[in-house]
Amino acid sequence: MHITQLNRECLLHLFSFLDKNSRKNLAKTCHKLLEVFQDPLLWSLLNFHSPVELKKDNFLLGPALKHLSICWYSERVKVCNIEDWMKNSFQKDFCKRHDNTVSDFLLDVCNRCPNLLSLTLSGCGHVTDDCILQLLKNCPNLKSLKLENCVQITDHTLEAVTLHGTSLQTLHVDFCRNVTQAGLERVREKCPSVVLRAERSANMIPDSKPEKKLLLEKASRKLVQL
């Protein structure tokens, strides 16, 4: 029996075991398989391991999407997470190449995926509070928001959770060094049912400008002298 002789349910099941590239390559072989590739039921879950993958034409984005994960563990993440004033010209140029890649993709998700239930972002150093705010507003069914090592996330995201995260059950802001203890306490107070986790976050030193860093160093030296 040829694969195209299988019914649609069987083909969808087979496609579900393939990665995005394999699905796309198989869809190129005939019109019937292309229709299976374009079936929204196949795209309820999307995992990405690099911002570059977001630009590929090997997936379908739509209302069927329920679970989205963008986890980037490359060495490049370390560059993006360095404070801007500490970056050399090469590092700044490197970061600008994908400055808006993840944010633009997430804004597309806001417009096309209103039924999103869970979002996990790791190492996405360019994602901002405004981006998460739009997601919370446009995806009212979001139950799980997990942010790890997203250095631009601040208390503004925590405030957005208290205002718009009506369905949220789980919130992680691990290694998000610019959220504060006060912001976390507000979430605990206003959203007591939300399971909140913030490992290595509120006690970390936030991004600071050179002059602030100099003041901190001077204060430390005075304490040592005392």
Describe this entry's structure for a reader.
- This is FXL22 protein.
- Keywords: Ubl conjugation pathway.
- Mean pLDDT is 85; it is low at 208-217 and 222-226.
- By secondary structure, the protein is an alpha/beta fold.
- The protein has helices at 8-15, 20-27, 31-37, 76-80, 89-96, 101-112, 129-138, 155-164, 181-190, 210-225; strands at residues 45-48, 67-71, 118-122, 144-148, 170-174, 195-197.
- The chain is built from ten helices and six strands, in the order αααββαααβαβαβαβα.
The gist of it:
With 226 residues, the chain is α/β, with parallel strands linked by helices. It is built from ten helices and six strands.
Question: What descriptive keywords fit this protein?
Answer:
alpha/beta; 12% strand; 226 residues; Monooxygenase; Leucine-rich repeat, LRR (right-handed beta-alpha superhelix); 2 domains; six-stranded parallel β-sheet
Write the layout of secondary structure elements.
Elements: H1 8-15, H2 20-27, H3 31-37, E1 45-48, E2 67-71, H4 76-80, H5 89-96, H6 101-112, E3 118-122, H7 129-138, E4 144-148, H8 155-164, E5 170-174, H9 181-190, E6 195-197, H10 210-225
Parallel strand pairs: 1-2, 2-3, 3-4, 4-5, 5-6
Helix pairs in contact: 2-3, 6-7, 7-8, 8-9
